User: Which sequence fits this backbone?
């Protein structure tokens, strides 16, 4: 029985600001993990690790997956899952490269086009889960396959380079400009590495959407209890379609970054990125049951995976072991979110 | 040790603490063979905790349990089962997708399923309880009343010596309660001891041999004779005024809601009752009751008015204007609120805070450029929560950790914040303690006095009789009678509620 007996009356407003801030920042265990990884990094390869170029490159390499993680977090908050984001990133990166190679479009034209492409497929995910009532796992699994197939079909299974040379043998102005999206060594205003900036901005924007707007509250309500949400006047269908569309749109936004980072759009680009994205959300405290999680948590979760890759890479740990360690970290993070598990492990009996 | 002949269960000095709460403190309880002991107390008094200890839900606790004179170490549901203790939880523990027979023997199957044997045994048990169901019927196809009896059958299949029933009647209509009583008498006749938790005092007079009252985790006293006033005083620790505070026959205003020939198709498979040409009116300042047995269409009627189901025929007006809600959202916009039947499943996001839940349907009012003005919203929520005297440390408190009565107050606060003109209430006092119940009744009266219309469905006839200006009776999705205040009696309502097709009142 939930026994709440004779508690004090409701407190006046404005209190517990501290606790509120903390909870907005995400789950504590994620920070513990972050500190641990930083410590390991500094202890083992201090000078190289703390080097600005190293850190920027590390975050840059992960930024596109971090952006996917933000979209996936939205979907997870409503109690769904989006497995298609890796494929969507792939087709968006292909779209970007082809727009550049075939039509010589300017970068600022390419990004919105990619976002629309991603949003279109995301919308189909949402439509399938709501109107056709297909479970989102199944719907997005199918989308993962369909979009990957389309990607390979339009590209003829050949990767499309983004370093396009003009008749004079130099990069075309559009290709030159496109590099700013993430080709290492090319900074925005010679100062800011675009993937890092993009990831941070996406996090801030969606953090604000989730915490400050009615739509954000509705996302949490749909994930927490869809029936109660509907009976409270929430348009559950619209919210569900919206989160999938936004997730697709973010995958589209991440496409050009990935293309610029690799200097080409590979038909296999983004494969298994969805798993890193989901892992980041889960490490950050999101619950696959829905209704629980924050963007701040996902941000920290993504940072952990990023730095983990980096630290292990610097210490020459093989890719194989990196995968093993990543998996273990996911399990540890989830276990740490369940303090009740510790009472169980301790044996529980007090008398 | 067996101090008394026939004592089957002794719980001695049981204590249990949860983080921050002393839920039970030195409570003792003895039960004799064939006895029905009622456990009474407000929500949070410790009844369920005590019974959960007995049923092995909690691993650790203080004190000692004896079954049949032997010390019993009960630390898991399996231990409890071995000692012949079975508990029927408030939230029924059946797997909807499995058949009745599979549910009855769940966890006790042989490695190679003996389908014929279990089905034969199940059929026998169901017959014994007067249930006319095939053992192969899936539980999801059974009505709540039937599921309750299936739980009883499950307990019986385990050679039960002590049967604990937590609020067994909260989901049942009166006729079904009768049947359950018949079953309980039959069990006690065979020497089974029954521990019965209920909030309905009137039931205890009929079924209980002895009433034990808990309050704040302590044993307050026990009585063999049931004196309602005294019991209420023991439960709440203070004398309580009139149970139903509504003054007779308030003046009524304009017609607020009219429903003409409303027909709503049922849904095959979900057990939803179709509505057939329902007509009714609710005036401003009026409380109209909806009575009927389980499956009569009470919830369906309220939900249809709230825009949950699409009507196939009929017309409604609200405040003199045509009213055809496409969705709950549209209904809310027209000033209608629904306090749904199942607060956990339909009304609350249990994992989120009081503030989140109360604010949810009213967020539109607090938007500034698409952004929720959090300070203004929180202030409004806090005012409403305080007004309804929700007992909680603050509006950041998680709703799932509140007691039932306080959860229901959160639901009410949420709807009052939308400033509705018509409030639909489906079982507003189910499963909550006397104190909170009286507060909700007072609130209903106050809302009517403010000129709001209230349409309330309840399976507790005394509540409807005392609170309502008029009572409609539904049977199989149609209105079979309507009684003005004063002319409604339990007998007349029950008769109309059982008026199958041929009879019309």
Assistant:
């Amino acid at each position: 029985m939930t026994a709440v007996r004779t508690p004090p009356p409701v407190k006046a407003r404005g209190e517990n600001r501290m606790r509120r801030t903390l909870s907005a920042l995400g789950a504590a265990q994620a920070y513990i993990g972050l500190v641990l990884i930083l410590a390991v990094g500094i202890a083992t390869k201090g000078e190289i690790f703390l080097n600005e170029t190293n850190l920027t490159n590390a975050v840059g390499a992960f930024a596109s997956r971090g952006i996917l993680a933000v979209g996936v977090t939205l979907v997870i908050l409503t109690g769904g899952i989006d497995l298609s984001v890796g494929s969507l990133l792939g087709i968006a990166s292909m779209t970007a490269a082809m727009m550049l190679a075939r039509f010589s479009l300017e970068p600022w034209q390419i990004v919105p086009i990619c976002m629309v492409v991603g949003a279109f497929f995301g919308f189909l995910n949402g439509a399938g889960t709501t109107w056709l009532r297909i479970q989102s796992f199944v719907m997005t699994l199918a989308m993962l396959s369909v979009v990957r197939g389309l990607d390979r079909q339009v590209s003829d299974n050949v990767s499309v380079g983004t370093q396009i040379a003009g008749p004079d043998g130099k990069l075309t102005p559009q290709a030159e400009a496109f590099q700013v999206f993430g080709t290492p060594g090319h900074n925005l205003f010679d100062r800011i590495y675009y993937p890092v900036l993009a990831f941070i901005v996406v996090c801030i924007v969606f953090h604000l959407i989730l915490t400050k707007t009615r739509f954000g509250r509705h996302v949490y309500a749909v994930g927490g209890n869809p029936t109660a949400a509907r009976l409270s006047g929430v348009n559950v269908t619209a919210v569900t379609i919206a989160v999938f569309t936004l997730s697709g749109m973010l995958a589209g936004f991440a496409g050009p970054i990935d293309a610029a980072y690799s200097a080409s759009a590979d038909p296999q680009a983004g494969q298994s990125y969805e798993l890193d994205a989901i892992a980041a959300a889960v490490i950050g405290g999101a619950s696959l049951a829905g209704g629980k999680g924050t963007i701040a948590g996902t941000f920290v979760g993504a940072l952990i995976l990023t730095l983990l890759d980096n630290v292990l890479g610097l210490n020459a740990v093989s890719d194989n072991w990196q995968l093993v360690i990543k998996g273990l970290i996911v399990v540890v993070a989830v276990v740490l979110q369940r303090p009740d598990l510790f009472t169980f492990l301790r044996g529980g009996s007090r008398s | 040790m067996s101090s008394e002949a026939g004592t089957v269960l002794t719980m001695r000095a049981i204590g249990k603490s949860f983080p921050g709460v002393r839920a039970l403190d030195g409570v003792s309880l003895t039960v004799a063979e064939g006895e029905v002991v009622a456990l009474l107390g407000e929500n949070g008094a410790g009844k369920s905790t005590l019974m959960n200890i007995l049923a092995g839900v909690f691993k650790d606790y203080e004190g000692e349990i004896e079954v049949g004179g032997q010390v019993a170490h009960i630390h898991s549901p399996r231990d409890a089962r071995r000692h012949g203790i079975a508990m029927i939880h408030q939230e029924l523990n059946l797997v909807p997708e499995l058949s009745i027979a599979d549910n009855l023997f769940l966890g006790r199957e042989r490695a190679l399923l003996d389908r014929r044997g279990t089905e034969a045994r199940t059929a026998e048990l169901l017959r014994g309880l007067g249930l006319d169901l095939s053992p192969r019927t899936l539980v999801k196809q059974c009505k709540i009343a039937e599921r309750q009896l299936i739980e009883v059958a499950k307990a019986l299949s385990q050679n039960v010596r002590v049967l604990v029933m937590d609020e067994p009647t909260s989901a049942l209509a009166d006729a079904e309660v009768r049947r359950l009583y018949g079953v309980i008498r039959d069990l006690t006749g065979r020497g089974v001891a029954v521990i019965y938790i209920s909030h309905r005092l009137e039931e205890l007079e009929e079924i209980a041999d002895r009433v034990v009252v808990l309050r704040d985790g302590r044993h307050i006293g026990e009585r063999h004779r049931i004196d309602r006033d005294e019991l209420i005083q023991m439960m709440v620790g203070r004398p309580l005024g009139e149970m139903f505070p509504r003054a007779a026959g308030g003046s009524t205003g304009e017609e607020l809601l009219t429903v003409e020939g409303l027909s709503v198709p049922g849904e095959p498979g979900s057990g939803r009752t179709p509505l057939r040409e329902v007509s009714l009116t609710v005036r401003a300042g009026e409380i109209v009751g909806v009575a009927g047995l389980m499956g009569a269409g009470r919830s369906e009627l309220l939900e249809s008015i709230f825009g949950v189901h699409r009507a196939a025929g009929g017309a409604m007006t609200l405040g003199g204007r045509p009213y055809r809600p496409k969705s709950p959202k549209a209904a809310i916009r027209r000033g209608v609120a629904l306090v749904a039947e199942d607060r956990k499943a339909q009304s609350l996001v249990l994992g989120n805070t009081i503030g989140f839940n109360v604010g949810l349907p009213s967020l539109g009012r607090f938007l500034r450029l698409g952004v929720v003005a959090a300070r203004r919203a929180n202030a409004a929520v806090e005012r409403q929560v305080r007004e309804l005297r929700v007992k909680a440390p603050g509006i950041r408190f998680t709703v799932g950790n509140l007691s039932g009565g306080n959860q229901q107050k959160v639901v009410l606060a949420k709807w009052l914040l939308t400033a509705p003109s018509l409030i639909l209430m489906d079982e507003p006092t189910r499963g909550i303690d006397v104190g909170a119940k009286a507060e909700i009744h007072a609130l209903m009266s106050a809302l009517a006095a403010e000129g709001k219309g209230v349409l309330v469905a309840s399976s507790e006839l005394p509540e409807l009789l005392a609170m309502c200006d008029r009572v409609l009776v539904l049977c199989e999705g149609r209105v079979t009678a309507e009684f003005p205040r004063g002319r409604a009696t339990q007998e007349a309502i029950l008769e109309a509620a059982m008026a199958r097709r041929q009879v019309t009142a």
Notes: Residues 348-415 of chain B form one domain. The first strand of chain B starts at residue 7 and ends at 18. Chain B touches chain A through 64 residues (CB under 8 Å). The mean pLDDT of chain B is 85.
